[in-house]
Design goal:
The chain is of the alpha/beta class. The protein has helices at 15-23, 42-52, 70-76, 113-126, 170-179, and strands at residues 2-6, 28-32, 57-61, 80-81, 85-89, 92-97, 144-149, 183-185, 194-198, 201-205, 213-219, 225-231. GO terms for molecular function: hydrolase activity.
Length: 232
């Protein structure tokens, strides 16, 4: 399966993205937040429906710069909104949560760390997911667990800003440490395009689509994850 991960669109179309989708077989497109730059919310449905013309399944979450109404627009579009829910798709189990931990900028989609942690934990418990791996280390029902968040986990390459400080979410790090997904796709920190490991979890920040960045993730027949950054 070929997955293209993008984030931080900020209301700007990217014609090279359309060309890439036209020229490459992408089974699943994951948009990990900040589709708009504080609106307009109508851009969401327009952008996602245009992406869907290329025949790929689309899963999306809102980011901290996405105002009220963006989640509804994702639901009304040709995408699957995976914010605050768990979705099974082929050999994957995806669980998502949009928004971010608090920032200095007082953006609309921020949550305190306690709310962040309890909200993600609650949706996992509601689906009876105690751990995304069996005691044997095998995936439940052979499916690969993927956590999709806008904010990156704290103290990883994915949350490092220009001055070297780490500004990611402690709650998301805690969820990863407890539930041990195979992959966390995030975004939010524009300058932190990276691939890192947190325990056995691969952490991917695909960078800003607005600046032409994305990440192609291949899940092979043995459930191995192979990731390469692409220029769009």
């Amino acid at each position: 399966m070929n997955i293209l991960a993008i984030s931080d669109v900020h209301g700007n179309e990217n014609n090279k993205l359309y060309s890439y989708l036209n020229d490459n077989k992408i089974d699943l497109l994951i948009v990990s937040g900040d589709i708009t730059n504080f609106g307009p919310v109508d851009f969401v449905e327009y952008f996602i429906n245009k992406l869907s013309e290329y025949g790929t399944e689309i899963f999306a979450i809102p980011g901290n710069c996405d105002p009220d109404g963006v989640e509804r627009k994702i639901i009304d579009s040709n995408a699957v909104c995976i914010h605050n829910t768990v979705i099974e798709y082929e050999n994957l189990v995806l669980y998502g949560f949009g928004g971010s931990n608090p920032t200095p900028f007082d953006t609309p989609g921020e949550f305190d760390e306690d709310t962040f942690y309890k909200s993600i934990k609650a949706v996992l418990e509601s689906k009876n997911i105690d751990s995304v791996k069996e005691p044997t280390g095998e995936f439940p029902h052979g499916k690969i667990p993927i956590l999709v968040t806008h904010a990156p986990p704290k103290d990883t390459e994915a949350d490092k800003i220009a001055d070297g400080s780490h500004v990611g979410s402690e709650a998301i790090r805690r969820i990863i440490e407890e539930y041990k997904p195979s992959l966390n796709i995030c975004g939010h920190i524009h300058e932190a395009m990276s691939m890192d490991m947190l325990g056995d979890t691969v952490i991917i920040n695909p960078g800003m689509l607005e600046e032409g960045h994305g990440c192609l993730i291949e899940v092979d027949k043995n459930n191995n994850i192979i990731a390469n950054f692409v220029k769009l």
